[in-house]
Amino acid sequence: MVMEEKKKLTLAQQTAEMVEWLASFGGSKSGGVTRLLYSESWKLAQEALKARMEEASLHAYYDDAGNLFGRLEGSQKEGRAILTGSHIDTVVNGGKYDGAYGIIAGVLALKYLHEHYGRPKKTIEVVSLCEEEGSRFPMTYWGSGSMTGLRSFDDVYLLKDQEGTTFIEAMEKSGFGKGKYQHPGTAHFDCFIELHIEQGEVLERENKSIGVVSHIVGQRRYNVTVNGESNHAGTTPMKWRKDAMNTASALIQVLMEKSKRMPADLVVTVGQMIVEPNIPNVIPNKVTFSIDIRHSDSDIIQSFCQEAFESFEGLARERGTSLDIHKWMDEQPIKMCENLNELSTTILQTEGTSFKEMTSGAGHDSQVFGQFIPTSLLFVPSHKGISHSPHEFTKTEDLEKGINLLIKILHKLAY
């Protein structure tokens, strides 16, 4: 499609076209998308986006991690730029909108602003962050983390994917990590605005068009290992058993019961379990299970963990078993910028657009940027809350409402 034809399309048509276009890079027969960091489909998508940015009169450039930027230069040479965007990578067989929508919205918003208002006073940039999901390598937020300094090349040096390819090998094969490109860092930017699908069903259920996020929840993740003793399932009396599964089941029940007595928005999930020796007629001698705990108040998370784990020790001793509790994630809750949120809500109230102030139960690049620069995270509805799936879907009219809001925010900030 040539540029003249694209100009004739409405914003809604441009949005729908660009969603399908970007989903073709790594698209599967089931309608899903697999676009893992530094893979061939990832590289093709970034290169195609670079061409789209240039077509929209943006100066497109990479940094050394593979983050792609499109810059709309402002007339004021002094001062930092406004940044918007999201991540280009996906989970395996994920959806068309997660991450991709924020990039599409940024490109279309900057294109619209340039065509209708010309050059801004303040520079605006859209970023296609190279990675957020952690789907290929055991590292999340590499894109935003490398920009902010929370992640470094030392952190990824020993990482490998499931095929045995090292992070460094994959990065260098894609042309990055060699010092060829500059690394702008957050000192270059004044604020970050991320437009994203909700990945939940609150907005759809409550018939709201926009979610204005006040906080991104903190997350703690643990692996709990219960050590017992294997023995014959038929000849070992119940009172003499040191059954790791029996203990694990009791501990999980404690977690769920205690969670009900905490604030309603605290969530606890046990999503993974490994049983050894995992034989039908043998008493398990070892069970390892995961715990995922989330809330917007770190004190509430701490209080819950302390109370639960104190109960764990007693229950394990009663059953003749022992415990090992390993904490492997501790992400603090991040508050979004009140001034940016007030700007969004003022625009929405003036236009009569329905919205909801809410917390985000999922992690986003905004929680990384939010530790360094003023940050705003905005949601549009997700149909039935489905995400990380080929069935992920948001109506084009909802996508368009989000982009229109982004256009107005950027206009207020930059023109």
Automatic annotation (TrEMBL):
Its required cofactor(s), as named, are:
Zn(2+)
* A GO term for molecular function: metal ion binding
Q: What positions does the domain Peptidase M20 dimerisation occupy?
A: 218-300
- For the keyword Zinc, the answer is yes
Q: Where are the transmembrane segments?
A: none
**Classification via InterPro entries:** Amidase_Cbmase, Bact_exopeptidase_dim_dom, Peptidase_M20, Peptidase_M20_dimer
| Binding positions for Zn(2+) 2 per the UniProt entry | D98, E133, H388
Annotated cofactor note: Binds 2 Zn(2+) ions per subunit.
Q: Which Pfam families match?
A: M20_dimer, Peptidase_M20
> For binding allantoate, which residues are annotated in this chain's numbering?
R221, N281, R294
Which residues belong to the signal peptide in this entry? none
Keyword Metal-binding (UniProt): yes
Which controlled-vocabulary keywords does the entry list? Hydrolase, Metal-binding, Zinc
Q: Where does Zn(2+) 1 bind?
A: H87, D98, H196
Q: Which family does it belong to?
A: Belongs to the peptidase M20 family.
Q: Which PANTHER family match?
A: ALLANTOATE AMIDOHYDROLASE, ALLANTOATE DEIMINASE-RELATED
* Listed name of the protein: Allantoate amidohydrolase
What is the organism field in this record?
Answer: Priestia endophytica
Tell me the classification of the organism that encodes this protein: Bacteria, Bacillati, Bacillota, Bacilli, Bacillales
